[in-house]
Each structure stands twice: as structure tokens, then as C-alpha cells.
Amino acid sequence: MRAKSIDDQGAIIEVTSTIWWQWIIAKVFTGSGVSVVSAVLPVYINEHAPVQIRGILLVTYSMWSNLGGLMASVALQVRNTEAPQDWKTPILTQFGMIGFFLLAVFWLPESPWWLARMGQQDKARKVLQDKYGQVEGYDIQHELDIINAVIEQQLEWERHAKAQGPFAIFQGLNGKRFLIGCYPKVLQSFVGLSVFSTNAAYFFQLAGNKDSFLVTIIIGTLGIGAALLDATFVDKLGRRAMTLIGFSGACLGMLVIAIVGCLDYANPQLGAVLVFGGVFAGFFSTFQSTTSYAYLTEMPEIRLRARSTGFGLAFSNFPAILFNFTLPLMLKAWSVKSAFFFVCTGIPGTILAYFIMPESCGRSAAEIQEMFVDHVPLTKWKGYKTTVERDLEVRQRANVA
């Protein structure tokens, strides 16, 4: 809520600014607000969503982000065509979203996991009652007991492992969970995501396309299509499969671009192949990036989830910022052959992902905690029967009897 308020203040400063340095202050406010919201919302979704549809909701969050970016590009293009000097009207449209946000403030409930960690048991029970009270056979108190048991178990493990304090997310097993959670977000920079996001217009110009707005529409549509496809299969095929498919597809597309870059891609035929390779790689890069939010929020333990997700996003932004500065220089010096760099970093990174990315689809926080503590091989998570599952089977047989 506070993050959104910061964003709103930035919009107000943008509208009232008359000097360049005031505009910079506005962008600092809006950028900070958006960054904080981007770190908090996936955690909020994770802690509220039922396990069965958690992946879909996390991916849908990314889809709406892509849709918002596409709509903004279209709106700015239309306004630039009709009244290129009118820069305030697009900014004023932000206040419409502020109105929707103010309505949401009075409706959105707090996370029951956070309330339980803060000792506010009655409020946590009320949130669960409001969400699941109409579901036949749903035991609110049993669910709350599970939440409390998971939190207590994790606190006990941390005390035993001495993984406490402000740097707990980097210590021992928590450090391993942190690295696994943010690895997909980091690797997406090394499979060429920057080529098809911030530098897409420049890349397609090299391929012969001079219409930057058309490039924006292509990339935006790709992002929405990739998110929809990911949402369809992320809870069926699983996070691990979707991540490996996304990385592999991106590497294949970059390999096509690199090979064509060694030929005369100025002619229409090879230029079309180059565009196809770019679209193919861009689709799978975006396709994987939506799944990465699931890993960011599912891998950390409950108590450290918000902090780990925020640090994970910040950590993954380092290579992203690096390529924002270096990629234009690479494209200028090596042109399309710059794709060889991402082939050489993306393929080894994808091979490593095969060995370190576990399957967390359909797993509760208690199950993920158990498998990490018991050191279940990361490639063997799918199909592994946890104590939680065995206890559930015993209770079901007892109920049937």
C-alpha cells in the first residue's frame, strides 16, 4: 500500500513539474513505487493463492504487466500522432488507476501467513474464514494449525542452524534456497532477454525493420501470448519443465540469429530468417521470465519470503542493468553476431538449470521446507512422497474407515 502511495506521489510530481530536475524526482518516486510493488505482489499472491492454482495466478500477474506495457505504448503512439506536444494527458490517465487502487485498499485482506507470524491469530482465522468459509468440508482451524506449525518448525530449524538476523537469507540452507529462487531471473539476462526488451527496436533495425512502434507491438504481443501459454501449462507440466523449455527455446533462437549473422542477412530471405529467430528467441525468453516469479516466491521459507523475493529481484537486476549499458555497444561492434555471446552463456546456464531447478508445482510450504531440510535431490522432487502427503493419506484412510 505504501509502495503504491509513493507511485501516486510520483504521478503528482510529474503533472506539476516544470523543470528537468523535478521530473527526475518524479521518476525516482514512480520507479521506487513500481519496484517495491513488483517485489511485494508475487509474495502476496503466493500466500493467498490455493496450491492448485498458485502458478497460474503468479504467471497471470506477469501477463497483466505485459498487457499494461502494450496498452501504454499504443496510447502514447496515438497521442503522439494526434497532439505530439501534449505530454500531460497520458500522465493524467494514471490517476484513473489510483482510483481503482483506493477501492482495492478497502477490500484486499492481509496475508494469513503474515498475520500468523505476527501472532494475530484471530485476524488470520477471519481471513481464512472469509476466503474458504463457503467451501464444504474445509477446516479453518486445521489450516491455521498447519500455518502455525510450519512457521514454528522453520523458526526451530533456524535456531538450530543459527540462521537468524538480517543476513539470514544468505546463511546455510537459506542461502541455497535464495540462489535457486533467483537463478531463473538471473539467467534470463544471459539468454538474451535484453535483446528483445530494452534493445528490441535497435535489434530489429539491424534486421531491416525501421518501424520502432511495430517492433513494440510485436514484442508486447509476444509477451502476452507467452504469459497465456505459460499460465495454461505451468500447473500441469510444472515449473521445472516450463523453465527448461523456455531457456532451451531462447538458446535455440539465439543460435539461429548467430548463424544468420555470419551470412548476408541484408537480403530479404535471410532477413526474414533473422526476424523469425528473433521472434522465436524473444517468445521463449518472455515465456520463461513469467515462470521465474513462481521460483522467487516458492523457494524461500515463509518467514523470509518477502525479504528473499525483494533481494532476489534486486540481485537479478544487476546483470539486467549491466546489459542495458553494454548490449548497445555489443550490437554496434558485433552487430547480429552478438548473439554468439548469449549462446555461449545461455547453453551452459540452461544445463546447470537442469541440475539445480526443483519441481515445486503443487507443493505446500511445509512440503518444500521438508524436502530442503531432508536434502532430497533437486532433480527428484517430482513424485517424491513427503511426510505431509503420507499423513494426509493416513487421515483419508481413517475417514473412509
Polypeptide structure, described:
This protein is an all-alpha fold and 401 residues long. The protein has a domain at 171-394: Growth Hormone, Chain: A (Up-down Bundle). The chain is built from 17 helices and no strands. The protein has helices at residues 2-16, 20-48, 54-82, 88-92, 94-105, 112-117, 121-132, 140-161, 172-190, 200-206, 212-233, 239-261, 268-298, 305-334, 339-356, 365-373, 387-400. Helix 2 runs antiparallel to helix 3. It is globular and about 70 Å long. The chain starts with a helix and ends with a helix. The model has no long low-confidence stretch (mean pLDDT 81).
CATH architecture of the domain at 171-394: Up-down Bundle
How much is the average pLDDT?
81
Portion of residues within helices? over 70%
Number of helices: 17
DSSP strand content = under 5%
State the total count of DSSP E strands. Answer: 0
The shape, in one word, is: globular
Radius of gyration, in angstroms, nearest whole number: 23 Å
The secondary-structure element order is: HHHHHHHHHHHHHHHHH
Structural class: mainly alpha
Low-confidence stretches: none
- The first-level CATH class of the domain at 171-394 is given as Mainly Alpha
Distance between the termini: 49 Å
CATH topology of the domain at 171-394: Growth Hormone, Chain: A
Q: Looking at the chains present, what oligomeric state does this protein adopt?
A: single chain
CATH homologous superfamily heading of the domain at 171-394: MFS general substrate transporter like domains
